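Database export, one record per block. Field names are fixed; values are copied verbatim from the stored entry.
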Amino acid sequence: SISENSPASRSELQVGDVILEFDNHRVNDDAHLVTAVSITEINTSVPVKVFRQGDIKTVFVTIEERH
């Protein structure tokens, strides 16, 4: 799911996307993604490569402070 009013909801990410890369680094699992996001500087726009409906697409997500 994508939380309402989150950086993901403001990007082009969609429910069902499989995140392959975050900031040009392969994502191994959910814990790896959480760690990568947490060490990324706030207000940084990062490329996120996703697998969606048979295609690979890159979207950009701006990292924000967690509330």
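Remark 1: Residues 30-38 form the longest helix (9 residues).
Remark 2: The beta strands are 18-22, 25-26, 45-52, 55-62.
End of record.
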